[in-house]
Design brief:
By secondary structure, the protein is mostly helical. The chain is built from three helices and no strands. One of its GO terms (cellular component) is mediator complex.
């Protein structure tokens, strides 16, 4: 089962909160422990839990959230670009809709649009390659 990036983000936020609470609790315990050592109330024994391990868990969850938000942003951008370049949706139904609606693009027309976009992309690629070759040859 694939989960969209926004849902994954929503699932990770409680884990991030829990991780932050654990990090702050352990950091506070270490601070109290180190203060007691500085005031010579305790010996220099090591505290049971390490801050760096919890900090790493916090940053790991934060990185996952960042990646999911970037992915969601990329999906939105891709959707906006597809709406701009192919403004009419392609019907996915197996039965054709009654004509006269004008809200969808026939599959054949969509194929023509896709071919023209691929041709345009190839032309742009070729122009960029020629430009790079010209610049490379002049140096």
């Amino acid at each position: 089962m694939e989960v969209d990036p926004v849902s994954k983000f929503k699932l990770l936020v409680p884990h991030l909160k829990e991780s932050l609470v654990n990090l702050m609790r352990i950091a506070g315990q270490n601070l109290v422990h180190n203060a007691a050592i500085d005031n010579q109330l305790k010996s220099g024994d090591n505290p049971s839990q390490r801050v760096d391990k919890n900090l790493e868990e916090f940053y790991s969850t934060l990185d996952q959230i960042e990646l999911n938000l970037r992915l969601a942003q990329e999906c939105l951008t891709q959707h906006q670009e597809s709406v701009r370049h192919a403004p009419l949706p392609v019907p996915i139904m197996s039965k054709p809709e009654p004509s006269g609606e004008g809200q969808t693009m026939p599959y054949g027309q969509f194929l023509g649009l896709a071919r023209s976009q691929v041709t345009c992309a190839k032309e742009i690629h070729d122009a960029l390659v020629r430009c790079a070759d010209d610049l490379g040859g002049k140096r």
